[in-house]
Amino acid sequence: MNIRGIQKTSLIDYPQTISTVLFTGGCNLRCLYCHNASLACNDCNLQKYSNDEVLDLLQKRKHLIGGVVITGGEPTLAHGIVGFLKKVKDIGLKVKLDTNGFQPDVLKKLVSDRLLDYVAIDIKTSPEKYHALTKTKLPFDLIIQSITLLKEYRIPFELRTTCVPGFVTIEDFHSIRDRVGNVVYYYLQQFHNHHTLDETLHTLKPYPKEVLFSFQQFVKTFATCCEIRGI
Ligand code: SF4
User: Fold this and answer.
1) What residues contact residue 64 under an 8 Å CB cut-off, 6+ apart?
2) Ligand 1 geometric centre to CA of 70 (Å)
3) pLDDT tens digits, residue range 155-178?
4) Fewest Cβ atoms nearer than 10 Å: which of 9, 24, 204, 222?
5) Is the CB of 169 under 6 A from ligand 1?
6) What CATH code would you report for 3-229?
7) Which atom of ligand 1 approaches the CA of 100 most closely?
8) Over 95-132, what HEC string results?
9) Tens-digit pLDDT profile for residues 64-118
10) Residue 36: CB within 6 Å of ligand 1?
């Protein structure tokens, strides 16, 4: 699974659930604002945990936690994710996946095998600006396929956008709405300029709260629930 980090207890990463968070190494994007550059780049200096030792830890902690969050990096790139999550489910824990949504084929396998209880998909910005912000040329349509799958399989999910000034504007939310349609949960995240992968963002000032509130008002036109994190 290439697990490169573990947070034994989290009260905030899985809604209404105390969780253990597992961080996988490697990512197919290079978001300018990424705060997990060493994970995204699969830095060889990071500690590496075997599947067996992680499963053993989860087994021992199952009376303390309700679920596991698989995050990264991009967890759907991890070899053996299907078999690993089957073992997590056998322990009796719920699973939340954090993903950038660009691997709908892997997601399909996970949802059809009933291995996911909750999913968070990043919508980095509008399709028009994806390349500028994430350096990927992967088609935005892959994310739409992932969202469609979650709707079809009735897996509870949230979309989330980090509001990077200039890269995420009200016009971008119009474009996002036109592509994703109606959803239930949408979270807006405040941008923080420390430890970003791209150093030029270190001096970029976050949006004032009022701008995030105006985004929230708009997102509520297509999301049943829209909240702001990090302010
Ligand atoms: S999707 Fe972007 S923010 Fe997330 S780990 Fe990859 S590069 Fe970092």
Assistant:
1) 9, 18
2) 14
3) 999 999 999 999 999 999 999 999
4) 9
5) no
6) 3.20.20.70
7) 1
8) EEEEECCCCHHHHHHHHHCCCCCEEEEECCCCHHHHHH
9) 999 999 999 999 999 999 999 999 999 999 999 999 999 999 999 999 999 999 9
10) yes
